[in-house]
Amino acid sequence: MAAMTDAWWKSAVVYQIYPRSFSDSDADGIGDLRGIEERLDYLSALGVDVLWLSPVYPSPQDDAGYDISDYQDIDSTFGTLEDFDRLLAGVHARGMKLIMDLVVNHTSDEHPWFREHRDWYWWRPAREGMEPGTPGAEPTNWRSFFSGPTWEFDPESGEYYLHLFSRKQPDLNWENPEVRHAIHTMMNWWLDRGVDGFRMDVINMISKDTALPDGPGGDGSAHYLCGPRIHEFLQEMHREVFAGRDRKLLTVGEMPGVTVEQALRFTDPARAEVDMVFQFEHVGLDHGPSKWDVQELDLLALKACMNRWQAGLADVGWNSLYWNNHDQPRVVSRFGDGGPRSAKTLGTVLHLHRGTPYVYQGEELGMTNAPFASIGDFRDIETLNHHAEAGDGALPALRARGRDNARTPMQWDASPHAGFTTGTPWIAVNPNYEHINAAAAVADPDSVFHHYRRLIELRHTEPCVVHGDFTLLMPDDPAVYAFTRAYEGTELLVVANWSAEPAALEVDPAWLGEEVVIETGGGSGAATLGPWESRVYRRSAR
């Protein structure tokens, strides 16, 4: 694993591709591998180092490909293994790397394993004294992430199987060594094929308390988040899959509910588990009791949260940095004002933290949430299931927080369907594509695209961005996000106004005469930031 040898990924930037919505080469309305291949020069021009593909394996697409029915093939919707090999060769030819989405907490119920290896999954009888298959007879009271119970009754056997997500996504039983061996074999197969690592979906759920006890109010997370054998399982994975390989690989674990203290253990290179984790604390700050309870972002809480993660992993471990991904609404609509200046400022703040930044497709264009008119415009299972329970009254929350906001087609140009497809797209293109699109952005030197390109270039060329200490400034200011980075005699000052009103800078005035390496407003020497303005200053020790 890279953490044991050369931490090349500290200066890298990862770009997430949601293949279904990226670029369609065959006019069927769904993105595919050849479409991605045709856009590699665009990604190379942006300057990213690693491409992360959301799942492209065969799948019934109950959960947009995160329900896998064959780990060692490509879904015909996206192409063939030969298409994949050609894409991988094209990525490598441009000096980039490619990581796969590894979904091994669960499979599809249409995976042969589910039919052939009953003991590879979690099966339990009905609750004692209850009639199997009747309401309330489920083995535990756990609630699924996608609404309803986590248990599905199988009339043929009279037992239930566990699914933390969709009923078509039964959870694998990692207690069975045969399961782990099959997964390790599959991972080695992909690495031998040339893949450069994995982003591991909900990987901190693979170890469960085998008693599977009830949870308060149906919340069973205490019994499956970072369970009793999680570190053992990840260390075994490292030994069986990554140890001894001399290639530069990347492993990132998506870990809902993980704490700073837990992340420190997961990412400590000496423990050989994962290189970095995705945590969710900062993207849960504008939630109430659930993600559908929409709240305003408290900037003070965000700064405190980010600062805590920066401090907690300052000496050991490593941060993943992201605002967007396939599960999150568009950050420019969520935390910004929907306009290009706020898109740039949000990018500035994120990329100047210590950690590896992730750019989600279209983020570099300032793509926004979509104006979904009715439930018929949505496609995501989580959204549709919540609407089935909550009704049309939930539509404002679905528009604000629904995962489909991230999944509308990539906006390539101003032609019909934004140049994504010449067919009918599987989900409607955001109508603002006529002025927010890649062709226009690449042609405009002042665009969000070129701002992101400059941020990525700064990470590649300024060691302080990668290695510098992080110090939060103005922690109690409700509008300004400010911090410094310092490394081997170089200091950076990052200041950003997260509001539509001018904001005063309470920093050492000497900074205002220093070199400005990145800015969004042009007022480099002013002691006031304009609306959504951000700047990055640099100075050397005297």
Automatic annotation (TrEMBL):
Which CDD domains does this UniProt record tie to the protein? AmyAc_SI_OligoGlu_DGase (cd11333)
* Glycosyl hydrolase family 13 catalytic domain ranges (all copies): 16-407
Source domain of life: Bacteria
One Pfam family from the UniProt entry? Malt_amylase_C
Return the SUPFAM superfamilies for the record. Answer: (Trans)glycosidases (SSF51445), Glycosyl hydrolase domain (SSF51011)
Mind listing the UniProt keywords for this protein, alphabetically?
Hydrolase
* Keyword Hydrolase in annotation: yes
Name of the protein described by the UniProt record: Alpha-glucosidase
